[in-house]
Design a protein that fits this description.
Elements: E1 2-6, H1 10-21, E2 25-29, H2 33-40, H3 51-57, E3 62-65, H4 68-71, E4 77-80, H5 95-107, E5 114-118, H6 126-141, E6 147-151, H7 161-166, E7 171-175, H8 178-193, E8 213-216, H9 218-249, H10 253-261, H11 282-295, H12 301-325, E9 332-336, H13 351-361, E10 365-369, H14 374-382, E11 392-395, E12 407-410, H15 415-418, H16 422-428, E13 433-436, H17 443-448, E14 452-454
Parallel strand pairs: 1-2, 1-4, 2-3, 4-5, 5-6, 7-8, 9-10, 9-12, 10-11, 12-13, 13-14
Antiparallel strand pairs: 6-7
Helix pairs in contact: 1-3, 5-6, 9-11, 9-12, 12-13
The structure holds nicotinamide-adenine-dinucleotide.
Amino acid sequence: MKIAIIGTGYVGLTTAVVFAYLNHDVAAVDKDERKLNLLHEGRSPIHEPGIQSLLEEVQHAIRFTPSVTEVVPEAELILIAVGTPPKKNGEADTQHVVQAAKEVAQVCLPDRHYTLVVKSTVPIGTNQRVVEVVEEVFSERGIQGNISIASNPEFLQEGLALQGAFYPDRIVVGANSDKAIDTLRRLYKPILEQTFDPPSEFPRPASYHLPPMMTTDPNSAEMIKYAANTFLALKISFINEIAGLCEKAEADVTEVARGIGLDARIGNRFLQAGLGWGGSCYPKDTAALLRVAAQSGYEMPITEAARTVNFRQRKRVVEKLHSTLGTLKGKTIGILGLAFKPNTDDIREAPALDIVRELIAAGATVQAHDPIAIANARLALNENAETDNDKLFFTEDVYELSYDADALVLVTEWELYHKLELRRLAKQMKTPILIDGRNVFSPEEARAAGFHYIGVGRP
Ligand SMILES: NC(=O)c1ccc[n+]([C@@H]2O[C@H](COP(=O)([O-])OP(=O)(O)OC[C@H]3O[C@@H](n4cnc5c(N)ncnc54)[C@H](O)[C@@H]3O)[C@@H](O)[C@H]2O)c1
């Protein structure tokens, strides 16, 4: 199938590479010249496990271009995967989605049928808005147009994007048109039936079952995406709330999570206490859902509380440092991990950014390490005038962090941190204090290595 994808970010590029691998004829459009230049050189602009090699493998089946006009007229299916960043009031900004839909409608040929699919995460009712925008453009052009519009929310997890795309739990399609549903069923056929030969880096899991394609109305599809992310966000916030009480009650949250996670109704995933969630989805999508609710005059106290608990986790680390060190003025703190989670270079809404800002505001000097997200974090922290750059240093050598440091804070649970030589780190520090923000280390081992160890929700 000839498909055009608008937007080559985390979602658009992953989708493009996977559909090209599945033998679809893919054209991907982006306005960002820097990304296009890299893609033309065959280099991925995002860090995502496996994406670079798969991009090289499918290069013959994808082209990248800044021009909608060049690719949309010939396409059968167009996927919109542009960003929907938060506005100041939390609402999701759909201007890029609307703009992309307009650009598509401007170049559709009057005598061909198209299926236009919104993959971006959008407020409930956006699909209908896209229908109206497209009709407006057709009427300005004085043409009838023949286009079916659908929603196909994306459930990608950064760091596991390709695995999730080849072996999804489900495909959700919201559409009022049978034609659109039929086109999407053909698009996803190799995934729904698992008829493709798995890429060597992504073998099919032995326990994997064929995924259902659920079809529903567009509003419900849009709501499914927000409800799914909010549920996952609140599951993490719930265990973080329990972790706070464990600290007071001298219980161990890792044991509590194990005990409740064994209940099949609860399940053990998303029950790791820590510094909470960040990234480009949960903070933005929970805020956007609250805006949708507010606009309908409806309160959502559970969603509000999930956010409050989440952002409190970031402050609690700084409080723990305060109470252990007395003051943060003049102290040097090493930060292990800047990306919002392992295996990505995405630092959008990353807990580390808030923690670094708070530490510097409290008078500390920060030395930070991350295996791949330093460049992005440097940009995010330096462009922010509130950060005093004389107090912030980045290092690519993880052991350098501990030289004369007063404390270390593990913020992102990168695999390489699991294997750190704790004794070596502790020896180099002024005061060997380790705040393990993700409960990565065994408290006994950390203490045996000479650390004063403080985890999350552990006695
Ligand atoms: N990143 C994730 O983990 C994830 C997961 C699920 C859903 N989503 C949703 O998917 C959408 C995209 O997310 P992302 O993380 O890929 O965003 P991103 O910011 O990484 O990428 C968006 C891309 O769209 C391009 N773009 C914007 N307007 C354009 C236009 N008119 N024409 C061509 N290109 C245009 C931008 O230049 C950018 O490269 C968002 O709505 C997001 O909420 C993201």
